[in-house]
Design a protein that fits this description.
Radius of gyration: 65 Å
Largest sheet: none
Low-confidence stretches: none
Number of strands: 0
Structural class: mainly alpha
Number of helices: 2
Order of helices and strands: HH
Length: 156
């Protein structure tokens, strides 16, 4: 049987061990509390990140919807512009054709007018040429007559 001194030493050692274990458990408690705090903080952070991800997904869906709407609007606007361009093109083509017809009609009228004036000018020239030949013939007859007549008889 152990002696009382040994028992006391054993008790003191056991007290010491209990004290060390108590300190160890206290540290474990502190560590567990800190881990719980960290876990709680991480849980809050994950929750906040989940909210942000959901918000970003919502924004992304809205952007996709807006982008699709803009694409549809752009397609409709492009179609409308093409129709307008086609309409303007047809209208301008028609106006050009009408202008060409008017110009052609004016040219034909001008040609006819000039042809009519040419005819009157040609007629006048022919009339003048006729007079020229008549005068030339008359001068020839007068010269012939004068050559046959003795002019000295008229002056003596």
């Amino acid at each position: 049987m152990p002696t009382s001194q040994e028992t006391r030493i054993d008790i003191e050692l056991l007290k010491k061990d209990v004290e060390i274990i108590t300190n160890l458990f206290n540290k474990f408690d502190v560590t567990i509390e800190k881990l719980q705090e960290i876990s709680s903080t991480l849980s809050k952070m994950v929750s906040i990140q989940d909210q942000r991800i959901e918000e970003q997904e919502l924004v992304s869906r809205e952007l996709q919807t807006t982008l699709e709407n803009r694409r549809i609007e752009h397609k409709a606007d492009t179609k409308e512009l093409n129709l307008r361009i086609s309409g303007v093109n047809k209208e301008l083509t028609q106006k050009i054709e009408d202008s060409e017809k008017k110009i052609l009609e004016e040219l034909v009228a001008l040609r006819n007018e000039l042809t009519g004036k040419d005819a009157s000018v040609i007629e006048r020239i022919m009339s003048i040429e006729g007079w020229k030949w008549m005068i030339t013939g008359a001068v020839g007859v007068v010269v012939w007559l004068l050559s046959r007549i003795d002019i000295s008889k008229f002056f003596s």
